[in-house]
Amino acid sequence: MKQIVVINGSGGSGKDTVCALAAERYRVRNVSSITPIVEIARKAGWDGVKTDKARRLLARLKEVFTEYNDLSFRYCMQQVDAFRQSDEQLLFVHIREPEEIERFRRAVGPICKTLLVRRPSVEARGPFGNRADDSVQAYPYDLVLVNDGDLDQLRRKTQQMLAGLL
Questions:
Q1: Which of 16, 31, 88, 124 makes a 20 to 30 Å CA pair with 81?
Q2: Ranges of the chain with pLDDT below 70
Q3: Which among 71, 141, 128 is positioned nearest to 101, based on CA atoms?
């Protein structure tokens, strides 16, 4: 069985760790809607460090390219097509903006679920100062995984969640 999961959460909440833990048991593809934007930002001189200023840059670039040629959405749909033709079981797609999550979910259909990874210690930090990061919780996710323990606890929570999906 194949499953697509839109994964979201504040910066540092453990999204990539959840994806890596899933890959311990399943064949996983892990992609981000920001990937083509990151490539553009690097060519323009961004050093790859995700400071608040850099996060604002990436969020604004994504907005501009969504309006201009829908670059991120097209990239995500190409990844879905490649996933469907592969032997992979699970596709994680990192998308921040609630309206983009919903648009992607509608385009992909019932095979798609949404997951919010929460880490209370990170959320206590406050806003990042950009719409993409600061609107993370403004979507009605299918699943919520609270990352509030050690790595072994997160591993158990992740495997239990995925067992219910796959």
A1: 16
A2: none
A3: 141
- Are the beta carbons of 61 and 54 closer than 8 angstroms? no
C-beta separation of 65 from 37 below 8 A: yes
Q: In what order do the strands lie in the sheet with 3-8?
A: 28-32, 90-94, 3-8, 112-118, 143-146
CB-based burial label for 44 (10 Å; 0-12, 13-18, 19+) = exposed
How far is the C-alpha of 96 from the C-alpha of 6, rounded, in Å?
9
HSE-up of 74 (CA within 13 Å, CB side)?
A: 10
Give the SS3 label for residue 11: coil
Residues, the chain: 166
Per the listing, tokens 């299918």 go with 142
Q: Tell me, what's the pLDDT at 78?
A: 98
Per the CB < 8 A criterion, the answer to whether 83 and 21 are in contact is: no
Q: pTM for this structure?
A: 0.92
User: CA-based diameter of the chain, in Å?
Assistant: 43
Q: 8 - beta bridge partners?
A: 116
